Amino acid sequence: MVIFKHRTLLALMMALVSLLAFTSNAFAANLWAVVKSNQVTQAEVFQLRLIFDEKVDADAIDFKPLEANFFLGQPSFASSLNFTNGKRSSSSEWTIALKAKSLGRLTIPAFEIEGSYSQPIEMTVNADTDLPKQNDLVEIQSQLSRSTLYPDQSAELTTRLIFKADLRRLQNPNFIAPAALNNSPGLSVTEQGKAKQTTQVINGVEVTVFEQRFLVTAEQAGHYTLNSLGFSATLVHGSNRTGSTKLIPINIAPEAFPLEVKAKPQGFGKQWIPTPSLDLTQRWLDADGNVLSTVSKDKSNSELKVTVGDSITRELTLTVEGLAPERFPQFIVNYPSAIRQYAEKPQYTQLSDGNVKMTVKQVLITQKSGQYVLPNIDLEWWNTASDRKVVTSLNALSLTIEPNELSAAPAVVTPPSLPTHSVVVEYNRGYWPYLTALFALLWISTLAWHIKTRLGRHNEAPHLSSVEHDTTKAILIAIEQQDAPRIQHLIGVWLTEHECQDSPLIDKIKTELEAMNNHIYGEGDSVWSHTQLIKLIKQLAKQTPMKKRQPPQLAKL
């Protein structure tokens, strides 16, 4: 009887434990791992969903165990809390994109949250058979203008990156810039402007083309390999048949170009211009920028007449094929000391055929009258097409500088001559009446000459003052307009009329003129303001009027 009671108690206790265990399992949270299909291809991207029926934080799951077999996207997380018929329910869900790293059978491991585990998933990864070819998506075309160079000579590399797929589907694009193999110092590669984007139709397909030009410059002789543009990216490709999304890797290796750099010929100095084509021309311009029609291009030594203070401009234009702007020569011309030269900064232009044009303007200001020759220009260069030295020349110019009218030597002023009188002596009359009449006539003549001289001086002063006022006004207007040739001309004439005045002040004006010309024509970025020059001009104008050239005095009677 006692034994039966113990057995009954034991059975009741075991039933109670089983009931508690069943109740605990019934109320435990669940974790599920779900994929749409466990049959995928290597390029296919599929979604893994993890669902937990309790509200937890986003970092409750660690996805690092997936990195061994899969490429991972950025996980997304969402949680919700619902009340239905007075009952509370919550859930947490993660979604992450995966792509297999290899073919075969791969396993998505089990995940754990608060003691709950998901089931592992076996994935079968097959090879892709219907992916588009790389050339059907992206293509690179490269062209090098020449394969043989001399030191300092350049070739043009043109690259065309053609996108046949939607650019919005590209991920992680990476460009490999053109360069010499192993970054050899024998070649340098620089971009020419920005890439040009266009939309074109090739074989009936609308494509996007990025065209970029590079300048390949030879630095030293040798044999080199130039690698063109390379490109890599990942393309997101969607299949309309299966509705799947695939990631297609794109990797275009740079095209290699062999390039030979010949040695520089013997006998050339610092000025070394290797090119298959060179054109050098000149134009002579007046102060207003108009071409001087009197100067002939055909004659070896044309002639031109100007006056002191005038300015002319020698415009030199050099067009070269296959030479970078920084390797263009400088035109250093030794002009006569009577001519002051101011060279403007060279202006470079990239022509449509790839050639580079340099324009240099040399402003020449005449300072002294006489006969001069503006020398010819000889430019040596190496013709790479025929492998020989060539000399291109520009003609000289014979220049006659005539004195300026305002600064010319004054004309000799002849004083009014005294009237001559013949004296007739009649011996029958006394000499006193005649002597008295003679002295009276001389006194009247002297008085008339004196009055005429004073009136002439009064009339001359306003005229000179008016001339000075007009010249000063013209100078100030030219300074405001920064018309350097006209300023130089007017001030040069104006200072000759003040050469006997304040010499230190005149020297300051000349110093300001030098600063002005350096600012306008110099190669540096000098700073100059016309305020000080205007102040000095006005200061000198307020002093003694323009220098008068006095007529020679009459001999005393």
Question: What's the short version?
Answer:
The protein has helices at 2-27, 431-481, 484-496, 503-521, 531-541, and strands spanning 31-35, 39-41, 44-52, 70-72, 76-84, 87-100, 104-108, 112-113, 116-117, 121-126, 138-144, 148-149, 154-163, 170-176, 179-180, 187-202, 205-218, 222-227, 230-238, 245-252, 256-261, 274-275, 278-285, 301-307, 311-320, 339-343, 347-350, 356-366, 370-374, 377-383, 388-394, 396-402. It is of the alpha+beta class.
Features:
alpha+beta; Immunoglobulin-like; 4 domains; eight-stranded antiparallel β-sheet; five-stranded antiparallel β-sheet; 5 helices; 32 strands; disordered C terminus
Could you characterize the architecture of this molecule?
The chain is of the alpha+beta class. The protein folds into four domains: 27-126, Immunoglobulin-like (Sandwich), CATH 2.60.40; 134-261, Immunoglobulin-like (Sandwich), CATH 2.60.40; 274-402, Immunoglobulin-like; 458-551. Helix content is 22%, strand content 39%. The chain contains five helices and 32 strands. Strands 1, 3, 4, 5, 6, 14, 19 and 20 form an eight-stranded antiparallel sheet that branches. Strands 23, 25, 26, 27 and 28 form a five-stranded antiparallel sheet that branches. Strands 11-13-17-16 form a four-stranded antiparallel sheet, with no helix packed on it. β27 (347-350) and β28 (356-366) form a beta hairpin. α2 packs antiparallel against α5 (531-541). The longest helix is centred in the last third of the chain and has 51 residues, at 431-481. Keywords: Signal.
